[in-house]
Write a structure and sequence with these properties.
17% strand, globular, 45% helix, 11 helices, 6-stranded mixed beta sheet, alpha/beta, 2-enoyl-CoA Hydratase, Chain A, domain 1, Lyase 2-enoyl-coa Hydratase, Chain  A, domain 2, 2 domains
């Protein structure tokens, strides 16, 4: 199972690979389970500064769940609920991951693949990438935990357009809908994703984690508490702040420690 989700370390940058290239990286129940475990482990590792999510090869990020599993794993409501627990545990791990997530999108990014990409903070795709969620053709519903990230990116009106029509559309339309952060030539997707990850990793890691937390919190309409407001100034007591402003004044590159 560990071979289905590869974890590649490059200093503080970790690449997580959906590894079923023979099936265009279609997701299976064991893959969802392992993905959740991997993301939880990485989120707890303070040495990590950025995670790149990608599919193996350059044909597909992921087309979503493997339809061949439905007959044995999701053939009725009871089975689907159990499958959903596994799948949504991975969704929750991605949602709660404290490190920045960069989606490196080659080719197909549909259904469950789109859900995974939507849970990333930055989504970089190639010009020929394709997006959509044609699950209406399978008689399937996108459950609340899966739909939440797409609605957050596009708004409910566009999310409904995607689900009700079930079209598969190109990168330019995906960017227009808010699903994609950046479109680059197909040959530059990996390079640009790596460059984004390096820029993130060069910054103060505590700041990146706070910014993720604050941005998510602002999607909640309840008032910011006094304690939450106070947390905005915790950065001034960090070693990284002292390193950062000293390096700026000295016109040097800061070497942040995550402290």
């Amino acid at each position: 199972m560990s071979d289905l989700i590869l974890v590649q370390h490059d200093g503080p940058i970790v690449t997580v690979v959906l590894n079923r290239p023979d099936k265009l990286n279609a997701m299976t129940r064991p893959m969802w389970r392992r993905l959740g475990e991997v993301i939880e482990q990485l989120s707890a590792d303070d040495a990590v500064r950025c995670i790149i999510m990608r599919g193996a090869g350059e044909k597909s990020f992921s087309p979503g769940n493997d339809i061949a599993e439905f007959e044995t794993e999701r053939s009725n409501k009871a089975q689907a609920i159990e499958y959903g627990h596994v799948m949504h545990s991975a969704v929750r791990a991605l949602t709660q991951c404290k490190h920045p997530l960069v989606a490196q999108i080659h080719g197909i990014c549909v259904g469950g693949g789109l859900e995974i990409a939507a849970l990333c903070d930055i989504r970089i795709c190639g010009e020929s990438s394709r997006f959509g969620a044609p699950i209406k053709n399978l008689g399937l519903v996108m459950a609340y935990p899966e739909l939440e990230s797409i609605v957050r990116l596009t708004g409910p009106v566009i999310a409904l357009e995607i689900l009700l029509e079930g079209r598969v559309f190109g990168a330019a339309e995906a960017k227009e809908k808010g699903l994609v952060t950046r479109i680059v030539p197909d040959s530059q997707v990996a390079e640009q994703a790596q460059a984004a990850a390096r820029r993130i990793a060069e910054g103060a890691p505590l700041v990146a984690r706070w910014h993720k937390k604050f941005a998510r919190r602002l999607s909640d309409s309840t008032p910011i508490s006094e304690a939450e407001y106070d947390e905005c100034f915790d950065c001034f007591d960090t070693e990284d702040f002292r390193i950062g402003y000293a390096a700026f004044l000295a016109k040097q590159t800061p070497a942040f420690r995550g402290q």
